Every structure is written in C-alpha cells, then in structure tokens.
Amino acid sequence: MNTIDLEKEFQRKLDAEEKIEPKDWMPDDYRKTLIRQISQHAHSEIVGMLPEGNWLTRAPSLRRKVAALAKVQDEAGHGLYLYSACETLGVERDELLEQLHTGKAKYSSIFNYPTLTWADMGAIGWLVDGAAIMNQVPLCRCSYGPYARAMVRVCKEESFHQRQGYEIMLTLCNGTPEQKAMAQDALNRWWWPSIMMFGPNDADSPHTAQSMQWKIKRFTNDELRQRFIDATVPQADILGIKIPDPDLKWNEETKHYDFGSIDWDEFWAVVKGNGPCNKERLAARNKAHDNGAWVREAALAYTEKKRKKTAA
Amino acid sequence: MNTIDLEKEFQRKLDAEEKIEPKDWMPDDYRKTLIRQISQHAHSEIVGMLPEGNWLTRAPSLRRKVAALAKVQDEAGHGLYLYSACETLGVERDELLEQLHTGKAKYSSIFNYPTLTWADMGAIGWLVDGAAIMNQVPLCRCSYGPYARAMVRVCKEESFHQRQGYEIMLTLCNGTPEQKAMAQDALNRWWWPSIMMFGPNDADSPHTAQSMQWKIKRFTNDELRQRFIDATVPQADILGIKIPDPDLKWNEETKHYDFGSIDWDEFWAVVKGNGPCNKERLAARNKAHDNGAWVREAALAYTEKKRKKTAA
Amino acid sequence: MATQQDTYDYTLRLADNCLILGQRLAEWCGHGPVLEQDIALTNISLDLIGQARNYYQYAAELTGSKKSEDDIAFLRNDREYKNLLLVEQPNIDFGYTIIRQYFFDVFHFHLLNELATSQDKTLAGIAQKSQKEVTYHKRWSGQWVFRLGDGTDESHERTQAALDHFWPYAFESVIPDTLDKNMTQYGIGADLSKIEEIVKKEITNHLREATLTLPTETWNQTGGKNGLHSEHLGYLLAEMQHLQRAYPGAEW
Amino acid sequence: MATQQDTYDYTLRLADNCLILGQRLAEWCGHGPVLEQDIALTNISLDLIGQARNYYQYAAELTGSKKSEDDIAFLRNDREYKNLLLVEQPNIDFGYTIIRQYFFDVFHFHLLNELATSQDKTLAGIAQKSQKEVTYHKRWSGQWVFRLGDGTDESHERTQAALDHFWPYAFESVIPDTLDKNMTQYGIGADLSKIEEIVKKEITNHLREATLTLPTETWNQTGGKNGLHSEHLGYLLAEMQHLQRAYPGAEW
C-alpha cells in the first residue's frame, strides 16, 4: 500500500474503534506520542514505588505491612507491563530507563512530594490512585492495542489499591483524634497535587486535541478533573475530613462541584524539577540502577557461560 | 657512657622511682613492651568509642545524650594522649593505626561485645571503666614518664565516667521493673567479660614479672582482679541486682570475695577474633579511616598550598 | 509434655525469623538491581511476613490473652526477639542479601520438612502451607548464588566477600539448644540433629558448584535464639515499631 | 504583643534546629576522618544539644505545665518539629557534613547576634551564652570549606557536589514567615530581613574564596519551619525517640 492508503486504513480502524496493533502501519507522530505517554506512565509506576516504599518498614501492623508491600510490588508489575507495551513500539527498556535516569523523560509530578506520615499511605491510595484510575479507565479503550490491554490489568489492580487507601483513611478517621488529625493533614497536603495530576487546563494543553483525535485520550484534562472532584468530595464527607479548598461547593445548575483556582506556578515548578523530592527520587532510581549494574552483568555472563557449555 | 653504665643508670632511676624520659637510654625490650602496651591502650580507647557510640543517637534524655557524647569524646581524647605518649618512644601514629587496622595490634577484648540495651551504657561505665581504673591507677606511677602523666589525666576522667555509669544503673534500678530487669540483664552480660579484662591468671601471664620489675606494672592481674571484685560486689548490693556468679561469697578469713572460675576458653576465643563484634569493630575503624583518606589528603594539600603562597 | 510456654517460645523463634528477614527484604522494595528482581525480593518478603503472621496468630492464641499478632510482633523489646542472628544482618548489597537468603532458605526448607509432621497440628499446618513458597525461595536464591558466584570476576569477588562475612552466621540455625531438644523430644519441634548434616552438605556442594571457596572457619556466632542479638537489631526494631510505640493502643 | 504560644513556637524552632543538627553530628562520633576532627564534630554536637536544652527548658516553662525538656524534645510527632530542612539532611560524607554545617553556622552566628538583643530576656540570655560557641563553629566549618574546596581535585569535586546538593536548602533560614515577622515586630525575634543579605554575602564570598562554583539555582526548599519536612526526619526521630516511646513515663 502507498502512504495515502496506509493513512486511510489507519483512520478507518480508528473510526471503527478497531485496535491498532504493533505490526500495523501508524503515523510517526502517533508512535512518538504513544512512546512518550506509555514510557512516562511506566516511569511513573517505578518512581511511584518510592514514596510508598518509604513506609514499608514502618507500617503499623502486619496486615498493613503485607498490603503495602503487595501494593508497591503491583506498581513494579505495572511498570513491567507498560515497558513491554512500549517495547512493541520499537524502543528498548534500557533506552527508556536511560531517559528516566538522565532526567530526559518525565514521570508524574505527584511522586515528587514526600510521604511524611502513615496517613500519606492512605491519601495516596485514595487520591493519587483515584486520580490515576480516572485517567486510566478511558485508556482501556485507547486505540493502541497493547497499551489498552495493559491498562485493563492495571486498572483492575489500581481500583483495589484505591479502596485499600480509602480504607486506611477510614480507619484513621474512626481512630483517635491524633489519627484523624493525621488523616486531615494528609488530605491537606495531597489534595491540590492530586487534582493537578490531570494536567494543565484544556486551554493550556496543546496536545489534547490530537490525542483525542487519535483516540489515545478520550476525555480532556478538565473533564477528568471535574469527574474526579465530583467523585471524591462525597468520600471526604464520609470520612468527616475537609477538603482544603474554601471555594469548593456544589453547583445545583451544573450538577458539578465548583472549586478554587489551581496554583499552576507550583505545578510547573515541580514539573521543572523544583519539587520537594525531585532530586531524591531521581537519585534513588539512579542509585538502584548503578548499584545493580554488576548484578545484571553477572546474570548475563552466567547465562552466556551456560549457553556455551550447552552448545559445546 | 657505655652500655653497662647506661643499664646501671636506668636501673638506678627505676630503684629511685625516678621517671624514665623519652631522651633517656632504655633497654630495647622496655621500649618495645611500652610501645605494645601504650598502643594497645590507645587502640582500646578508640575502638572503645564504638560500643557506647552505638547508643548516642538513642539516648533516652537530653541530659544523658550530652553526658554520653562527652564521655565518648573523652575516650577519643584519651586515645590522643596515649598516641602522643607512644610517639615519644619513636613510633608514629600512622604506623600504630596501620597495625590496628590490619588486625596486627590488639585492643581490649571487652569492646568486642555488643551494646544491646541502654543499660549497657550504665554497665560499661560502672564495670568496664571500673576495671579500667583499677588497671590504670597504678599506671600513674609507671616508670615511663609520658605514660604515667597521660594516665593521670585519663584516670581523673575515667573515674568520672565510672560514677556516671553507676548513676545510670542506679536510676534504672530505682525505676520501673522493666528498667531494673534491663540493668540486671546488662550486669549478667558484662560481669564476666569485665573481670576477664585483667587478663589471664598470673600463672598464665608470662610478661607480668618483667613488667613489674620495670615498674611498668605495679600489681599482678589476679591482685587487680580481686581488688575490683571486692570493690564492686557491695556496689551491686546497693543497686539490688545480683552478680551472675553462684560461687561468689565473702571469705571471712582472707577478707576477700571468693569467686567462680572464669571461662578462659571464651576469653581466648574473643582475643583470637571470635567475639560477637570483632569483625564489626575492625570494619568500622577501617571504614572511618578509609572514608577519611580524601579529607586528610585535602587538609595536607591545602596546608601545602598556603605554605607555598606565604613563602612566595 | 511441652508446656504452653515452651510452644509459645518455640513458635516465636519461627515467627521472628520470618518477620525480621521479611523486614530486611522490604528495605529493598523499589531499590532492586532490576525490576524483575525487585519484584522477586518483595515477593519473598511478602511470603515470609505472611508466614510470620500465621505463627504470631498461633502464639497469640497460646498466650490465652487478648494479645493480637501485632502486639507480639511489635511490642517486645530487643532482647525478647528470638530470631537467628543471620536474618537481622543488614542488606549491604545484593550479593550479601543473596548469601544471607540462601543460607536461610536451605535451613528453612529442611526445617519445614520436619515441622510438617509435627505433633502440634497448627505448626504442622503452617509448615505445610509454607513449603511451596520456601521451595521457590530456595530455588531463587540458589540460582542467584550460581549467577553471582560464577558470573563475572566482580560478582565472584563480591559474593565471596559476602560468603566469608556471613559464614559464621550460617549454622546457628542447626545448633540445637535446650528448647530445641525438648521440643524435638515432645514430637513438636524439628529435629535439628537430623537436618544439620543435610543442610551443611547441600550448602557446601552448592557453593562449590558456584565456584566459591568455602571458608575454613568453623566458629559459629550464636545467641539470637535466646535474644542475644547483634547491634543491628535495635535499629531495625526502632524503625519497625515506631508507630506502634508512638501511638499506643491505636488501631490501624 | 507576643502571646505565650508565639514565643513557644518561636523557641521550638531555635531548639529543634540545634537538637536535630546535634543528633546528625552525633552519628559521626567514633567514625570521623581523623581523631582530632572526630572530637571537633562531637564538640559541636555537644554545644548544639546544650543550646537546645536551654531553649527546651524555656519552652517547657512557657507551657505552664509540668512538661519537661525531654517531653518536648522527644515526644512530638514528625510534623511538630520545626527545624530547618537543612539540618535534618543526612551526613552522606564529610564534605556534605561540612557544607551543611557551614550554611547553618553562618546563619546561626548572625541570628544569635540579633537575638542577643531580644526583648525576651531568656532568649537574649541563651543567645549571648551561645555566641562564643557558634563563633567557633563557624570558624571551624569555614576553615574546612577552604581545605576541602581548595585541597585536592577529589576534595574539590566532592565539596562542589555537596554544595550543589545543599544549595536549595541554604536559605530557608533567612526567609521570614508570618511568625518570624510577628516576632520581629514584637522585638523578640531576629529580624531576618536584616541578616539575609549579610548571610548570603558572607557565604558566597567564602565559597568563592574556597574556589567553589556558586550554583545558579535560585529556588529554595522550604517547609521545615512549619513542620513540612523531608522524608529523612521520620527515620531520625524513630531512632531518637525509641526509648522514650518504648518505656512511656520512665525516668532515665
């Protein structure tokens, strides 16, 4: 087929809601956009292990310790699915990791905030995973097959994590006054960063239109953000803690919550590298990778020796 | 003077209880014995910083934290005096440290036991410093001047440390039942190692006679051990905790306490390197020294640069 | 016959080994040398802490009090933990972690084989349930001993250093003390004299095959079973217990 | 006029800076690069914890309760500590420790100059008593900045790395928040706007003289003064508070 026919076939599949598969022709920019998005997503899972990993050794009960370990392990697993999905687009995991480690690739800015108390384990599950799900559920219908299928698995586990996080918050809110204060404090610190997770306002999000046309994205940033807020406010009410936004109130007309304006200066500062933990997160990933070099080399060398022996 | 006259003059000074000074002639073996003993003593101060250093960050009150820091710092200071005293015998600190770091030089075996609870800070002060003082007070009258003078300073501080240790024990013994149990447990663990600090029984201590003749030592191991036990038993009684020796009892005839037989197998095992912490102590010292190499080099290089500038 | 206290004490040893090693492995989570092995390390941590919970729940029952698994796991002082010295040692690097793990896994595997036929039905049940997991652990760490021992020069050297370092801690596990012997006699505890040779032989053969040099030292560090630990445990516990201690009585 | 609560909060900041940095320095004790500097590090730790005690004792008075210095020093949760982010950062190596110390010492020196004339007589008294010690600290760390910055290539490189690392933490100290401003107005607190320029100028001149390159970054990490810390503080506190937490109400 010539290029025009290929483009037509690609468009036909998009229109018919058929999946684009690795061997199918696709526009270069479609591929690039996917690689960027999927690898950012994978990196976010991997870097996202760190803030919660910070509380594994200090989890306050065996049940919580096991659940937290399993959750962080799930994130590693999501990273694996996503790197694999990305590899179907013709880019190796090593190259993607290199981009992460040198700071060339981005990951979700939310993970540049520190986890200061145990309640952050609740807040992250409830809010951060909650926001992630809001973003990710539509991705299960993404036009690129391998990404869509990875997201199906991811979303199933994420929603479990979200319930688990909410349950941590619920336990704290039903606990001692100190525990409830700990929960409120965590909500205060995680609320705004969570609603920033949906990205800039639509007006400032130049790629959104193209991504929606390609059926990578299905909703705009602002649409998803509004959904998240609408879903989350009643949950905070059940917990009996207060979302730190004095402008937040139900709008009878729109049937949505109105909310205060977002501090985009903070958002961009953190994206640019000036969050509380940007340097530490990247340093931790680099350290793990560098310290692991001899292990990876040993495994390769051993496999090679075995291969030679078997061949001989 | 010829050698015979020199020997006579050396002996005259010993007999007259005059000090031997660095520039005086002395027999080679006297010099060697002193170097070995003083450097072992210095090393013991330095390695001895580690077991107590282990509780500095976990001291249970500010007052205790300050006192513990000051104590461990004093030990470093003692190390300095003693290395200086040793240097008067014509051996450099670097060489002595090299002997420590390679395991060639010994240090007091007591520091190869771990500090497992806060009560160990009390027990070490009370028993280990107590035993050390018993050993060291006669050294203030040692025939070698610089060593004798260093010991005067050391002993003054050690007796302060011992009182401080005893006071920790007293506070624990007057505290909650858990605290008193902690004190008893520490006594149980430190008692036998402490009375082993005086070294092998006289019959198994071949160097003692020569050292006493040279007036380096003033009492035998067994004499000092007995003194220590006689002094310490009543202190344990005041604390209301029990020395872990079923054979310990007052002997009306000898006016001393009889005590059970010492497990010399354990003593020699620890001396040989098989104590609970031998490897860790040496590793900690080596690590500090190795990690400090670039700092020492920088200081030298900077001084050299300054010197050149001033000279230019 | 075994008193409730004997069984409680014995169960605690089993539990503490699993918890403390699980805790050490949890420190790796997010910091592994490669994603797949990060997951594997966490997996073993999860298995071990899961097993620890079974033991602690049984221990809690045995106290006949209202104590929970968490009360026992978190609210003892340093001298009351009864784990082997081996499992509390720091991770240092992946090579040290593997050697520590392998030593424990071989012992653990054969221990559970014995415990699986314990006359104490609860302990036998926990042992049986754990066998599959521990078989996997032993295979995993054993494979890594091969890869690291017989991989590159650097990996060989590092792993040899780890082996030399942990060798004195390798066999505290199979040296029976009075409680071990009594529990064996009651038909409850594993007979360590039966597994000692098997464990040592398996380990030494495996290490040789991995091209590692067996240390000649024959001396064993002991004490953990009776609460005489290394200085490392205190720090681990201060961290692990922090919330339980800081908020007494709170539910989490 | 300052409320008791204002003065209490302000005093805590002073106290926590000294305690937490003192605690970090205490980690060096027995592990210094050379005996004389081991002693110097411990000495500064001792001075700072001594100063902290003065502040905590005053804070305890201000509560009007039976709280002791130790209750305040040991029994708060992580979010209630008000120290600067700088002082809680890990030691890493001697170079990092020196840069961290030097940044703090310069600020501390000029802070005390101001505080020495506070209308709060107790704070003024503590500040006056501390001046000599802190003058020595600043001289010591400043000298080491020279030695390391202008020593060998390796020391220069390491110290530059430490400088780059800590630069965003250098000036939280001189950025006034509402409490700082109020306390200045009441004539109690140090006027940070007065010392900001002095501190920055002194530091930048000194670093240049030490042949180090000033980072161009202008962004400051903040939060510590209001209890928003880095993830490092929690571990430091778990360790520091362990005994106080594990044995509630005990006397030591």
What does this structure look like?
The complex is a heterotetramer, with two copies of chain A (312 residues) and two copies of chain C (252 residues). Helices cover 66% and strands 2% of the residues of chain A. Chain A has 13 helices and two strands. The radius of gyration of chain A is 21 Å and the shape is globular. Chain C is mainly α and 252 residues long. Chain C has helices at residues 4-26, 35-63, 69-74, 85-88, 94-115, 121-149, 153-166, 178-185, 192-209, 232-246. Chain C is globular and about 55 Å long. Chains in contact: A-C, A-D, B-C, B-D, C-D. Chains A and C meet through helix 3, helix 4, helix 7, helix 12 and helix 13 of A and helix 1, helix 2, helix 3, helix 6 and helix 7 of C.
Radius of gyration of chain C: 18 Å
Low-confidence segments of chain C, given as residue ranges, are: none
Radius of gyration of chain A: 21 Å
Largest interface: A-C, 50 and 50 residues
Report the sheet-strand fraction of chain C.
under 5%
Q: What string, H for helix and E for strand, traces the elements of chain A in order? A: HHHHHHHHHHEEHHH
**What is the percent of helical residues of chain C?**
55-70%
Largest sheet of chain A: 2 strands, antiparallel
Low-confidence stretches of chain A: none
Q: Roughly how many Å apart are the termini of chain C?
A: 38 Å
Largest sheet, spatial ordering of strands of chain A: 1-2
Q: What are the secondary-structure elements of chain C, in order, as H or E?
A: HHHHHHHHHH
The average pLDDT score of chain A comes to 96
